[in-house]
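Q: Predict the bound structure with protoporphyrin IX containing FE.
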Amino acid sequence: MTTTSSTIPTVNQDLTDWDFCQDPYPEMARWRRLGPVVYNEFADHYMVTGYRNCSRVLAAVEKFGSQDLEALFVRAFGGVTMEALDSQRHHDIRGIWSRFFQRDSLVSQQELVTDIVTSQVDQFVERLRSGESIDAIPNMTRAIPTLVIARMLGIDESMHQQFSEWSDAMGGSQEGAYDSTPEGRAILRKGADATAALNAYIKEVIGRRRAVGPGADLVSMMVFHDYAKEMAEQEIIASNTQLVFAGNETTAKLMATTLVALAQHPDQRRALAADRTLIPRAIEEIHRWQTLVQVLPRRARSDASEVDGVLVPRGAEVKVLIGAGNRDPERWERPDELDIHREPRQHLGFGFGMHSCLGLNLARLEVQIWLNQVLDKMPEFELADEIVYGRGLGLRGPKAVPLVV
Ligand code: HEM
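A: Predicted complex:
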């Protein structure tokens, strides 16, 4: 039997509400118990809840697509990118970079990542040891992924600081989107200006590569690829802009979340320090437990857009609650507990299906190298203040991680 929209359980929740965002899990667990799909009348969208159903929806692009959300990506990156394409064109564009981001190819990037991580961790630890209480985000985690991707794109070192500022402003506009005060509007404007400035700079870099010939960098890889002839200039610019942005806030927030999790669970931190082979699974468990991208937007695009017997009306906005999926008791025992010793099982933190994260191996590599150094150089640390989460579930993470040793 198919449940139609008139019989789908209804809730009323502002997903950007400050209190809700501090701890959305109890409420999302309640929604999961209501059914595979819940209608949220507050924002007129349908929310998908359990692990199995979230992954099914993400895999079924012919029923739940990203491409109808093109405007969202154009606003964020200045043009159409692979994330807004559900067709063969998506595979062709993704294919330009996919080999580079495979795990075995990234072995050659370990030294680069280690150098960047070392410089950031060392200066942070030195300040901590001098007795300061400092926020790990602006003083350590934030710069690492930006510097890594800047080097991979072959960006001139003199531009790295500017690059970080643009990337920060783009990331900041997440928060501005939920703030209707003049301050919120200013944050949004700053984000839009940063996207435009980064677009203009990438355009210049592309021009220089064309004039001089290809280098061993990601911009060249796209510009000189055969498929580039099929792409509009703005698509090439936006794709490179997306690459700058997609991995920065996310990876830095995974590091920040890891610090919070390990400060709150000192026994697990000590077990990890004593047995480093646990690091890869610990990072995945932390990412499952405190998922960063909690919600993925899709649109129902067929008259058969159905989830576990529940029909979602064509054209409806759908929110795939991967944060709720990652705490599904049908998949994990004691899902609300952090347990780095768990047998690893795939979680949804990097998405699922054709749009699953292109950079997940790079993110894992960066966080693994970083965590090893953190455990070596500051094995004991504590939170110096209460942790507060930002508004919105698009990218959830602590606003600040003040630490003391
Ligand atoms: C912890 C860090 C990261 C997290 C949590 C994360 C999360 C995600 C998620 C959930 C998606 C799926 C989006 C969707 O289905 O609509 C995604 C896609 C994507 N990510 Fe990541 N990401 C991370 C790091 C990175 C890095 C380091 C890069 C590249 C340098 C990157 C590049 C991309 C790209 C290009 C896509 C679009 C893929 C496609 O549409 O085929 N991400 N990411």
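A: The two ends are 58 Å apart (CA to CA).
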